[in-house]
């Protein structure tokens, strides 16, 4: 009874306030209450007079916020019935354009291109082009290709479909997987040079088939072996033609706002037909870590912006020393609790690589004069003793440079 009396008292108080308070204040309180509801539930409720006051729901800002963040990473797999299908997990990669180490000009061009693509619905309709775009990311291992893909997905808030070509049986399965992808997605094929034979020799498969047929006609014993060996060939595996249709054929237009990304360590090993504009529109070369990217990584990992050994490391990069962003990050990660040691080890490693590059260049020049190839001889990298000597040289160089500056 006490609870009921308190409830009736509260209702009475609300009735009095509704009659006493001005209309403007009531509307303000109502809007505040509505915003509080929207912050607690992803749906907004409202009345529908046409249905005699029935309540309906619509997604609000919280729903759109949750939907934009609830993105998925898909990978292809065979179902129990053998059909090609996708399975997915939440996509939570932390990489963004603020965290990856890229040349500032390259980063600006990529961001501008991605933004223009995402806002280009009317442009693509007006020009009669499918609303899709192709990116080719190529460079040595550790240059940041996968991190860049994650940054692109996070920037555009797209789902990611990671397509493993070696698990696709036929061109028909490849087409079925394409149809199952959603709009606003990145379709990624990593290490495409290792997934298919895309070297441009399109007649190689037919030559192998003709050779098997000749062997089949000459010997019955060889015939049985040929049948067993040729079983894979009779199953129409994914071909270059199927991949070309995947990227630029009629079936590639079955959705909107899609980006197809290929990655490779060796771009020369891919058929040029796959790389032309319309299939791979943007080619991004990711190589060794530049001076700006190196300083950005050092600042992010160990919080160092100015250091004498950092200047020495930058000089080594400008003189030809090369380290990928992954290698630089590993040195900094090992020494993240000691910034001085991190920058010093990085400078020593870069100086060692510069010395090795200079030695290689000198040997190549000598080989041209003597017509002897030094690559026939085994080379050994600099050991720790050599790196200690290099560290001593770096310190003496930085001290002499400081003396000339009057520091």
Automatic annotation (TrEMBL):
Superkingdom, natural source: Eukaryota
AAA+ ATPase domain mapped to chain residues: 131-290
Annotated GO MF terms: ATP binding; ATP hydrolysis activity
Keywords: ATP-binding, Nucleotide-binding, Signal
Region (Disordered): 209-232
Signal peptide: 1-22
One Pfam family from the record: AAA
InterPro entries for this protein: AAA+_ATPase (IPR003593), At3g28540-like_C (IPR058017), ATPase_AAA_core (IPR003959), ATPase_AAA_CS (IPR003960), Mitochondrial_chaperone_BCS1 (IPR050747), P-loop_NTPase (IPR027417)
Family that this chain belongs to: Belongs to the AAA ATPase family. BCS1 subfamily.
PANTHER family in UniProt: BCS1 AAA-TYPE ATPASE
Protein name, UniProt field: AAA+ ATPase domain-containing protein
